[in-house]
Amino acid sequence: MTCAFRPTHHAKVRMIERGISRSEVIETIARGAKLRRGVKVLSRLRGIEVVYRPRKCNYHVITLYRR
């Protein structure tokens, strides 16, 4: 079973503005270093940071940016 990637409208806009592809977001979530902040998780990998809420086999992406 493959988990779903569900970006908010805000996250979709940021992906376009910052030139971050869907595959980069998924890789950052899957392989990045994690920092839990309450119910949210910050994942970092290769200069990309993704803030998301993990849910049962869904990643509700809130925002993302490059460092």
Can you tell me about this structure?
- The protein is of the alpha+beta class and 67 residues long.
- It is globular, with a radius of gyration of 11 Å.
- It contains 2 helices and 5 strands; from the N terminus they run βααββββ.
- The chain has a 5-stranded mixed beta sheet with strand order 1-5-4-3-2.
- It has one domain (4-66): 2-Layer Sandwich (YaeB-like fold).
Features:
YaeB-like fold; alpha+beta; five-stranded mixed sheet; 2 helices; 67 residues; globular
Report the helical percentage.
Answer: 25-40%
Which homologous superfamily in CATH is the superfamily? RelE-like
> What is the CA–CA distance across the termini?
32 Å
Order of helical and strand elements: EHHEEEE
Strand content is over 45%
Overall geometry comes to globular
> Largest beta sheet, briefly?
5 strands, mixed
